Amino acid sequence: MRFDEAYSGKVFIASRPDYDTAEAVLFGLPMDWTVSFRPGSRFGPNRIREVSIGLEEYSPYLDKELTDINFFDAGDMPLPFGNPAKSVTLIREYVDQLLRDKKFPFAMGGEHLVTLPIVQAVFQHHPDVLLLHIDAHTDLRDDYEGEALSHSTPVKKIAEMIGPENVYSFGIRSGMKEEFAYAKASGLHLYRDHVLAPLKEVLPSLAGKTVYLTVDIDVLDPASAPGTGTQEIGGITSKELLDAIHAIAASDVNVVGCDLVEVSPPYDNSDQTAIAASKYIREMLLGFIK
Fold it and tell me: All domains of the chain, ordered by start, with CATH?
């Protein structure tokens, strides 16, 4: 189940070579077909792999090593350039196969639209799934410039599928007036500006629940993550996001899949954003794979 035709040979640090025995599968979704400002996130997954060599395999936060878990890096999925509809279908089918094979799906984006087909597949296997959404943007539009499949629309479409009351958005500081109105009227849980404090308040009420986590790197302040396509000032620190990941890992929720999206290397001259993303991925792998 490795994407051999497009695979560069680079893998995330400590990845194991065997799909069949792996508990989790890390895979890249190199797609930025619908971005509304600056493209480039299709290069994110591979650059995250490249800089992961600078990581320690050991997490002092969790007292675990990547060698303690068995995960497989499948490489980047070949996606049809400029075709969001076909790309969404291919991603959904792939994640469905991962879940049938009892693998934990962990995606690296790519634009945030990639979360939609992943959650669609997860919903078929876990119809009680909740969404934890950490992002600067609401992503609650119906369409962007007439395109319903857009990086501005995945959370709205997921909310319509699983119920808006089952969506929890944190760190939000940008969106249309209509998007905030929809969240308020629909019962979607939207927490502005901050992540850690509201997350800690919410997590006890979600004990025992099945959740999917999506993290858009632009939740960080641009000072911490310049390498992303749609920066928003006033974001959280890199430490707050790290603490949020650890809070989820320490909670009693059942994380059945996750992604980290919108790392865009062309705007990341020092690799600051990719390096941060690689560390978050290490902590998510160690925290969520039990």
Answer: 24-288 (3.40.800.10)
